[in-house]
Design goal:
Blueprint (H helix, E strand, L loop, with lengths): L25 H14 L8 E2 L2 H8 L3 H13 L3 E4 L3 E4 L5 H11 L13 H9 L23 H14 L14 H15 L8 E4 L2 H12 L5 E6 L3 H9 L3 E8 L2 E2 L1 H7 L5 E4 L13 H14 L2 E5 L15 H4 L5 E6 L11 E4 L2 H15 L4 H12 L2 H27 L5 E3 L6 E5 L6 H10 L19 E5 L5 H17 L5
Parallel strand pairs: 5-6, 5-8, 8-9, 9-10
Antiparallel strand pairs: 1-3, 2-3, 4-11, 6-7, 10-11, 12-13, 13-14
Helix pairs in contact: 1-3, 2-3, 5-9, 6-14, 7-14, 8-9, 8-13, 15-17, 16-17
């Protein structure tokens, strides 16, 4: 007897129509309709077909007509009957019928039509990559040591969340996020980053990228001037482009964004986007003098500052400077953070800390953009933080990532004694391998992809002139053996271009 399959709920799903005025008899029309549905796959092999009584009622024909059709389909091997169970599409159909099925199912070729794409999206496509979603290899940036995550502990906490979730959390939820998680975020930021805020100033989102897009929806109008670090993160550049901002590239040096240059280029910009704790991609830290200058400029002009603190938890020497938000006495800074770079990327939880007057504007936009993050994941993370597991996990990650950073530095020295220069590798999950002037980092990046190595050419992150080429080398998500292997393959790619190492 065939295994029971899902029963089609409605005959209309078969798209069978009968015409009582047609010259062709009704039973032939019905036979042809069911046979075509089987051959084209609308009635898959093994599926249970509607009963003869149901078909007769729905199609408005006599049951004897339907029985006649079923008898013929059974005789030809299209359907099989099972006593007490109904009739099913045959699992084995002769080869010549399968060929007919392929010919019937194949749609006629169509001339491809070029889609109409907004011009700004064509611009975005030039500098955005679409990740495959698979495990990233060497030297993909922004990935934490997922292999070090305490999965068994997290699983127990998640199971507990499922058991005790309040029924009111099964609805749309608060646009701001789960209150105990927001309280835990406030405590963590106060202790580690000097951020001063209340839970009412915290909005939980899926990522730092979503936080920035949310801020842009509220604060950026088409044509507004926005300071942007040059070089800078292409994801942030994309968010500003989508918002219609007029991006003002402000050069950076070893002390971060050159604030006086920004003032000279566009003093009346309405917003500045900065990564002060670990400038992306160069890795430098915005000096205290420039932090104070940036805050003074924002206070005097009424501009907003977006502080993207995407991976400041990873610091291997000394203590980081207090966050800009903690130094801000005028309420001009929006602080963005993420758990996707300290726990695991699939978690999709981040947050934005905003001045109180902006919350009433951000929350409605949050509901438009995505309602809320998963309450169950928020509950689990809140417990993970409140019970001290998060702080212990961060301490563990700093040790692990420092070891991986050291492995990378040793591998660069071994494989590239003269070509690559590493500097400013005291923070974060990636560093920059600087190349000599005149060497094409894009050519090396393309050759590296042929070797299975993903390293971003630094020149692709500049808007203005490129003072020096380089390669981004992420190491956080790689074990030491994977780092060594990736560096050997990168060296092979460089040798294939005839460049000295």
């Amino acid at each position: 007897m065939p295994a029971p399959g899902p029963r089609l709920a409605e005959v209309s799903e078969l798209l069978i129509t009968l015409d009582s005025k047609a010259a062709e008899p009704l039973h032939r029309q019905l036979y042809r309709g069911i046979r075509e549905a089987i051959l084209t796959g609308r009635l898959p092999a093994g599926v249970r077909v509607p009963s003869t009584r149901r078909l007769a009622e729905d199609l408005g024909v006599s049951r004897s007509t339907v029985l006649l059709v079923f008898d013929q389909l059974v005789a030809e091997g299209y359907i099989v009957g099972a006593v007490g169970s109904g009739s099913y599409v045959a699992r084995l159909i002769p080869d010549h019928l399968l060929q007919a099925r392929r010919e019937t199912a194949a749609p006629p070729p169509r001339e491809p039509v070029a889609p109409r794409i907004a011009p700004r999206n064509r611009e975005l496509r030039q500098f955005l990559r679409v990740p495959s979603g698979l495990y990233p290899g060497a030297f993909y940036t922004g990935v934490p040591p997922v292999d070090e995550f305490p999965w068994s502990l997290w699983s127990r906490l998640a199971a507990r969340s499922y058991r005790r979730i309040p029924r009111n959390q099964l609805y749309h939820g608060s646009a701001a996020g789960y209150l105990p998680l927001r309280e835990a975020i406030v405590a963590q930021l106060a202790a580690s980053r000097g951020v001063r805020c209340s839970p009412d100033q915290v909005i939980v989102v899926s990522s730092a990228q979503e936080a920035l897009e949310l801020v842009c929806r509220v604060l950026v109008s088409p044509g507004d001037a926005v300071w942007f670090e040059d070089p800078g993160y292409n994801g942030s550049r994309a968010a500003l482009t989508i918002a219609g901002a007029r991006i003002v590239p402000v050069p950076t040096d070893r002390e971060g964004m050159i604030v006086e240059r920004g003032i000279a280029i566009e003093p009346r910009a309405g917003l500045a986007l900065v990564t002060p704790s670990h400038q992306y991609p160069s890795g430098v830290t915005l000096s205290l003098e420039r932090r104070l200058a940036l805050l003074q400029w924002a206070n005097q002009t009424g501009a907003w500052i977006v502080e993207d603190d995407y991976d400041s938890e990873y610091r291997y020497a000394g203590r980081p400077l207090t966050a800009l938000q903690g130094l801000d006495s005028a309420g001009r800074v929006l602080y963005i953070g993420t758990f996707n770079k300290t726990l695991f990327p699939a978690l999709r939880l981040g947050y934005v800390v905003a001045p109180e007057p902006l919350i009433e504007w951000l929350l409605p936009m949050r509901r438009i953009g995505g309602q809320h993050a998963s309450p169950l994941d928020q509950m689990t993370l809140a417990d993970f933080m409140a019970e001290g597991h998060y702080a212990r996990h961060l301490r563990r990650l700093r040790v692990v990532c420092k070891e991986r950073r050291d492995t990378l530095l040793a591998a660069v020295t071994r494989e590239f004694p003269t070509l690559l220069e590493i500097a400013d590798a005291e923070t974060g999950l990636h560093t920059v391998g600087w190349l000599p002037p005149g060497v094409s980092d894009r050519q090396i990046s393309a050759a590296a992809r042929e070797q299975g190595v993903d390293t971003v050419a630094l020149s692709t992150l500049y808007i203005g002139p490129v003072p020096r080429p380089g390669l981004l080398l992420g190491y956080g998500g790689l074990t030491p053996p994977a780092i060594d292997d990736g560096m050997r393959r990168l060296a092979a790619a460089v040798r294939s271009l005839g460049l000295p190492l």
